[in-house]
Design goal:
- By secondary structure, the chain is mainly alpha-helical.
- The protein has helices at residues 7-14, 28-36, 46-49, 58-66, 90-100, 106-113, 116-121, 146-165; strands at residues 20-22, 41-43, 72-75, 84-87.
- The strands form two sheets. The protein has a two-stranded parallel sheet. A two-stranded antiparallel ribbon has the order 3-4.
- Helix 2 (28-36) links the parallel strand 1 and strand 2 (41-43).
- Helix 2 (28-36) packs across helix 8 (146-165) and helix 5 runs antiparallel to helix 6.
- It is globular, with a radius of gyration of 19 Å.
């Protein structure tokens, strides 16, 4: 895992052929920033959860749209699997409490979390399920066709790069 501030160093030091940046990239500004840091592209997950073509349950999509940037939590950090970011819910509250109670075993926590993705994404239970989504919640506010998302991200990136060019003087 490489944080965004490490992208230019990784591209330069390791002479990698390509770097793909992920995490909180939901619009053209994020794409432009990644490209300007030397990335070849980006991975966008959360934005496409709100694509019309995404089969996620409508309740899950509506929960994402209603959420703000402070409505997500990370579970699993203390369980040794690196953590998973989800919208805060009854499930995440119970899981975090189990992680920190000093009593619940790793196996019990694993059993607790089984099936929670399906509960939210397929069954629409956003209270007992895990709505896995990133941190850029303030910018996730409508359901659109995937083609519209791609076109708007590309157009926003072009505009952001053009805007940034005004700071460069050709010598």
């Amino acid at each position: 895992r490489v944080d965004e501030d490490q992208v230019p160093d990784r591209v330069h030091i390791y002479k990698v052929d390509s770097v793909v940046v992920a995490g909180s990239i939901v619009d053209g500004r994020g794409l432009a920033a990644a490209l300007l840091m030397g990335a070849e592209g980006v991975q966008m997950g959360s934005r496409f959860l709100l694509a019309e073509e995404c089969k996620a349950h409508q309740n899950m999509k509506e929960a994402i749209i209603k959420a703000t940037d402070t409505d997500s939590v990370v579970t699993g950090l203390l369980s040794g699997h690196g953590g998973v970011r989800s919208l805060r819910s009854d499930f995440t509250d119970r899981y975090i409490a189990a992680e920190t109670d000093g009593v619940t075993t790793k196996e019990e926590r694993s059993k607790m979390s089984q099936g929670t993705n399906k509960l939210a994404a397929i069954d629409g239970d956003v209270v007992n399920g895990a709505v896995q989504v990133g941190q850029a919640l303030n910018r996730l506010n409508e359901i659109e066709p995937a083609q519209t998302i791609v076109h708007s991200v590309i157009n926003e990136a072009i505009m952001a790069i053009r805007k940034a060019q005004r700071f460069i003087e050709v010598i």
